[in-house]
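Need a sequence for this fold. Nothing fancy.
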């Protein structure tokens, strides 16, 4: 068997996977070297899988510098399930309503789902600027009695990303980091909870990582359905119901790749900054031929939303890039335009090829 990776994947999700991970996965689908069985047929009750979950947890702890104050759960349902599960577990009569930052498509979805479960406030809304900028977290006026403050660290649709800025320290901070998790170091101690689904930087869809501070777990009320109670998944070591074995296996391979081939999250951040500088620099060189949706201080290293200023030209560019084996560049249905996602496994060579295609297209149509 051989691995073919002729297409350059710039999709917002499922995202690209490292070549070495794809190759190992390919072999594992035939037979795992440790068991002689296909990974697709491995029991979630086997010693092999129990060891895999433990390794995945330890690799994440090492990469993130995560202290023993946090529990790790591998869950299903994507971040969308977390949107409702979080207020079920952590809001309540003892606190003022949780507060949400509405900064783009996915944070709006998170807010709307949470409000179905519990009354929630909106601490900041970016609608007036068409979600092209982000707030200063430290300057938000948050009620210290609020159950928590929730935000999305990277908006994949609009191409917005929070930097490493200060945040209110008088309220529990919960972040959806689905699209920039493990792309750079993060000060985990600032957060009461971080969660991220796979299909961006972690592997194929099917698994969601939840890092939860033990102090937050103490809030959970009795009487929740067991599968919606974080304590259930932690107590059962992410094996309460049949877990996504394949997705957790690939996540573990990705964590090894970050550790052994990349050299950790500081090295990953440097690579990602180089890639995003390359594409934003290309836009700068083209003047007003290209419009970037996000304003400069908040432009994402992971997702770049842009347009040639005309729907017809945007479609033409997607076709132009497709002829050069570049896929996944269509903008999100809610925003339109073009979107290039530069997740961890997207190589510098792939980004250079995209930049060359952007320049060539812009010059031909100027």
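Here you go.
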């Amino acid at each position: 068997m051989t691995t073919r990776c002729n297409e350059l994947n710039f999709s917002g999700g499922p995202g690209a996977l490292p070549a070495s991970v794809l190759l190992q996965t390919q072999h594992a689908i035939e037979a795992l070297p440790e068991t002689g069985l296909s990974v697709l047929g491995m029991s979630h009750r086997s010693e092999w899988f129990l060891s895999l979950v433990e390794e995945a947890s330890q690799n994440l702890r090492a990469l993130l510098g995560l202290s023993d104050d946090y529990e790790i759960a591998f869950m299903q349902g994507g971040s969308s399930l977390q949107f409702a599960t979080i207020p079920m577990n952590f809001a309540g009569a003892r606190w003022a309503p949780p507060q949400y930052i509405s900064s783009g498509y996915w944070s709006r979805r998170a807010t709307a789902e949470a409000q179905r479960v519990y009354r929630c406030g909106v601490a900041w809304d970016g609608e007036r600027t068409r979600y092209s900028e982000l707030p200063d977290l430290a300057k938000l006026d948050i009620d210290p009695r609020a159950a928590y403050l929730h935000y999305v660290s990277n908006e994949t649709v609009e191409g917005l990303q929070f930097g490493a800025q200060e945040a209110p320290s008088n309220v529990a901070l919960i972040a959806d980091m689905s699209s920039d998790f493990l792309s750079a170091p993060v000060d985990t101690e600032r957060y009461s909870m971080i969660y991220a689904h796979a299909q961006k930087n972690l592997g194929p869809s099917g698994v969601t990582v939840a890092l939860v501070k033990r102090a937050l777990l103490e809030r959970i009320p009795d009487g929740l359905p067991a599968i919606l109670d974080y304590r259930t998944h932690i107590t059962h070591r992410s094996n309460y119901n049949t877990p996504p074995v394949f997705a957790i296996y690939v996540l573990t391979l990705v964590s090894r790749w970050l550790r052994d081939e990349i050299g950790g999250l500081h090295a990953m951040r440097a690579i990602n900054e180089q890639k995003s500088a390359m594409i934003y620099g290309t836009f700068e060189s083209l003047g007003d031929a290209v419009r970037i949706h996000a304003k400069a201080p908040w432009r994402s290293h992971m997702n770049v939303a842009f347009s040639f200023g005309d729907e017809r030209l945007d479609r033409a560019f997607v076709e132009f890039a497709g002829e050069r084996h570049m896929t996944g560049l269509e903008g999100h249905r809610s925003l339109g335009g073009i979107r290039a996602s530069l997740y961890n496994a997207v190589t510098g060579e792939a980004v250079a090829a995209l930049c060359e295609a952007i320049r060539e297209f812009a010059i031909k149509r100027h």
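For context: Residues 265-285 form the longest helix (21 residues).
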